[in-house]
Amino acid sequence: MPTSEVTNFDKFAVSSNAALLNSEGSICKLPLPTRIAFIGNYLPRECGIATFTTDLCTALAVEYGEERLFAIPVNDPNSCYQYPERVRLELEQEDLSSYERAADFLNFNGNDLVCLQFEYGIYGGVSGSHILTLLRRLKMPLVTTLHTVLREPDANQRIVLEEIALLSDRLVVMSQLASQLLQEVYAVPNGKIDVIAHGVPDLPFMDPNYFKDKFGTEGKSVLLTFGLLSPNKGIENVIRALPAILSQNPNVVYIVSGVTHPHIRRREGEHYREQLQALADELGVSKQLIFNNHFVTTEELIEQVGSADIYITPYLQEAQVVSGTLAIALGAGKAIISTPYWHAKELLAENRGVIVPFANPQAIAEAVLALLANDAERHAMRKRAYLYSRSTTWPKTACAYMASFQRARFERSLKPRALQQDIASVEAANIVDTLPSINTGHLQTMTDDTGMLQHAIFSVPYTKEGYTTDDNARALIVSVLLDDNLQTTGMQEYAHLSHRYLSFLWHAFHEDTGRFSNFLGYDRIWRDKVGSDDSHGRALWSLGEVLGHSQDAGLRGAAGRLFEAAIPAALTLSSPRAWAYCILGMQAYLDWFPGDRTIQGARNVLANRLLDIYERCHTETWKWFEKGLSYSNARLSQALILAGWRSNNQRMIEAGMDSLKWLVAEQHRDDAEIFVPIGSNGFFIEGNEKARFDQQPVEACSTIAACLEVYRLTEENLWLEEANRVFHWFFGKNDLKISLYDTVTGGCKDGLHPDRVNENQGAESTLSFLMALLDMQTVKVTIADEQPHGTGVSP
Asked: Which of 54, 523, 544, 622 gives 585 a disulfide partner, CB atoms 3.0 to 4.6 angstroms apart?
C-alpha cells in the first residue's frame, strides 16, 4: 500500500544543506508529486543505468504507488526493446526530433516532475548534448541524477554538465566526492545537491554456503566480479593473481558474471572475454575460472552475490564516482577487495573492505589469502559493510528521492523559472491604448442550451463537471456588459446569451428557501439543494448588474423579480465575500434606482458587517478583514469603499482604502513591479508564509476591478497604474513570463503552477479575463461620466 502524502527518510540516506531538511532528517510536510516521469535507460536494455532506473522506479512504486510514475527510456541505434507497461514513450538516441517530441509529450500531459538519469554516453549528440533540447523545453521541475562527474572534463563535457546543472532544480549524486567535484569544478551551489547513496536490495545477512549449490561450487571459496564486461574493469589482474592464490588455497573458484557491454560488443565483439579466457589458459587456471555470460535478473544477481565469499572490483581507473555493483555487494554483506577508485575509497572506509593498488595482481592475491585465512576478520568486515548499507536499501533510497522531488517542487514555487519560449511580448506601456479586441469565441464554446459549463480540458468543454450558478452569474455580468457596449451601434449580439444565463439562475432558485442551488450536473439534476453563500452573493450581484446596465425590458423585468425574491436571504449569509458580492449587486441596482430605501438599508447592513470585522481583525501590520487572505480578496475592499462612498460613510472609505493599499503591497513581487496574487495552494494566514502558487485569474480580475473602482471615484492615477500592472499579469508579466490569454480561442488558462501554466480554459478563468478586459475598456468612458452607472466589471 502506498505511504501517506508526507515523506520521512533516514537521515543517513541523504544529505543536503536545503532548509527543508530538519535535524531529524525529515522533510517538511509537503504534498507528494502525483505524476513523475523518469528519463534514462530501462530494462530489458542491458545497461547499468537501465538496471538502476528500473530498480528506482520499482522501489518508488512500492512505497508510493505505481500510478505516480512512468518511464521514458533511450534506445541505442538499431535497437528495439520489449519494455514493460511502465514505459510510455521511447527516445531514439541520435534522433534530435524525438527529444523535442518527448518534451512536448511531458508538457502536454501535465507532469509534476521529471527525474533524469544522466551519463554522457547514453544520449545522442556530442557528450550527450541532445538531451539539452528536451530539458530546455520542460515546464516542470527537474531532478537529475548524475552517474558521472568528471574531475577533468573536456570542453564539451563541461558545457553539457554545466547546462544540465543550471536547468535542474536539484542534482542527485551518490557519493560525497561527487558532491565536492560539482562544487569545486562546476561551481554548483552545495544547497542544490542531494547525496543519495545507490540503492541496494534489502537482503538478510546470510552464509554464502546457502547459495553455492546453485552454481556447483559447494565446498569451495568463491571470488566474484559481476557487471558488464569491458577492458577498464581490470579482470585480467584477478586472473593473474589466481596462481598465487591457488598455490595456497586450491579450493578457490573465480566467477565472472555478466555479458560484454553492448557498445563494446558492437565494436569489438567478444574480444575482451576471449583475451581473458586465453590468459586463464596460459596461466593454467581456466578450470578455476567460471564465465557466466548472461545478463542476470535481480533474483539471479542476489543468488550469485549471496554465494560469494569475497567480492572483487579490480577497476583500472580512479575516476568513477559510483559503482552500482560495489554498492550491491556492500548491501549483501560481502567481504570486498577493490582498487582505489573514488566510490570504493568512500564506501570501503573504516575497514568495510580492503583497498589494493591499481593493476597489482600480487596485492590482490595477498588480500584474498589474508581474508580466507582469517575467518573472524572476514566476517567482522562483512558485518561492518552490512550494517553501513542498511541506510541505503531501496525503500530508504526511494524515500530519499521522493524527499528530493518534494524539495524541488517547493523550491520552484519559491523561485519560479521563466520559460523563454513562452515570454509574452506585451509592453508595460499605456495598456489602455493597447487593449486587445474582445474575442468571445471561447465564451460561446463553453455555453450550450442550458448555460455555461464549468470546466474545460484545454479548450474543449468538459461536460462531466456540469454547470454552476457561480459561473452563470459571472457569465450574465459579462454578457450584459458586452451587450451594453454595443448599444450605441444598435447591435444586440449578446442578448441571447444574457437570456440563457438568466434562465439558468431562475432554474437554480428555490422559492421555498429563497436560495440558489449551485451545482447542476450535465444530466440536468441538481447536486445540491442550497448552494454556498458565495454563489447566492454572485447571483444577486449579476441580477443587480442586469438592472443597472441592460436596456432589454424583458431581461430587466425577469431579473428584477428574481432580485426581489433573493434579497431577504442575502441578510442571512455569513460569508464576508458573499456580503461583498451582494453589496456590489445592490449598488449596481441603486445606481439606477437610487431612491429604493429598502435596498439602501440592506446594503448598509452588509457594509457595516464588513466594517465591523475589519475593525475587530486589523492591526498595524495586518490590515485585513480576516486572519487570512484567500480568494477574490479585493472584492471586500471594493465593496466597502463603494458602499462608503455612496452612503457618505468616511470610516468605511478609510477602512476600505487602507485594506486595499495593504493588499496591493502584499501582491507585489519584491524584486520587480510584477503582480503576484495570493496562491490558492495554502493562501496566506497571518504569521505564516504566503502561498505563491497556484495563481488564479480571478485574483487579477478582482484586484483590477477594485483599483479601477477607486480610480473612478478619486481620479488618482496611481490606481490606474496599478490596474495596468495587474492586467499585464494575463499577458506574461508574471512569475513565469507566460501569457495566460489565448488569442486564438479567446479563452484564458486556469492559472499558474510553480512550473507551468494550467492549460485548461475553464469558465471562471475565461470570464475573469473578459471582466478585466471590459473593465479596462470602460475606464475612459467612466472617467467622462459624471454619474456612473454600475460598479464596472468585476467577478
From this structure: 544
Helix (H, G, I), strand (E, B) or coil at 463: strand
Strands 519-520 and 515-516: unpaired
- What b/e readout covers 342-377, taking b as 16+ CB neighbours within 10 angstroms? bbbbbbbeeebbbbbeeebbebbbbbbbebbeeeee
Set of cell numbers at residue 178:
561527487
**Which residues sit opposite 214 in a β-bridge?**
none
Instruction: Compute the average pLDDT of residues 395-407.
Output: 96
CA pair distance 650, 646, nearest whole angstrom: 10
Q: How far is CA 138 from CA 134, 152, 278, 305, in A?
A: 7, 29, 51, 40
pTM over 0.90: no
Decide if 365 contacts 348 (C-beta within 8 A): no
Q: Classify 751 as helix, strand or coil.
A: strand
User: What are the grid coordinates assigned to 66, written together?
Assistant: 505505481
- C-alpha dihedral, 9 to 12 to 18 to 19, nearest 10°: 70
Q: Cβ distance 368 to 310 under 8 Å?
A: yes
Q: How are beta strands 14-15 and 170-173 bridged, if at all?
A: unpaired
C-alpha separations of 270 from 178, 227, 237, 261 in Å: 32, 15, 18, 10
Q: What is the average pLDDT across 727-737?
A: 92
Name the residue with cell 479548450.
Answer: 459
* Per-residue model confidence (pLDDT) at position 212: 87
CB 367 within 8 A of CB 305: no
What Å distances lie between residue 295 and 231, 261, 325, CA to CA? Answer: 18, 10, 13
Higher pLDDT among residues 678 and 682, named by residue: 678
Q: Grid coordinates in use for 732? A: 506574461
- Residue 554's alpha-carbon distances to 328, 499, 559, in angstroms, are 80, 9, 9
List of residues 6+ apart from 741 with CB closer than 8 A: 436, 730, 731, 747, 748, 749, 769
What is the Cα–Cα distance from 412 to 406, expressed in whole angstroms?
A: 10
User: What distance in Å separates the CA atoms of residue 574 and residue 253, rounded to the nearest whole number?
Assistant: 82
Separation CA 633–CA 576 (nearest Å): 10
Phi-psi region of 58 (alpha: psi -120 to 50; beta: other; left: phi over 0): alpha
How far, in Å, CA of 666 to CA of 93, rounded?
48
Distance CA 225, CA 232 (A): 13
pLDDT in tens, 276-285: 999 999 999 9
Residue of 510, 659, 515, 612 lying closest to 573 (CA atoms): 515
**Is residue 34 scored above 70 in pLDDT?**
yes
Phi, psi of 447 (to 5 degrees): -110, 130
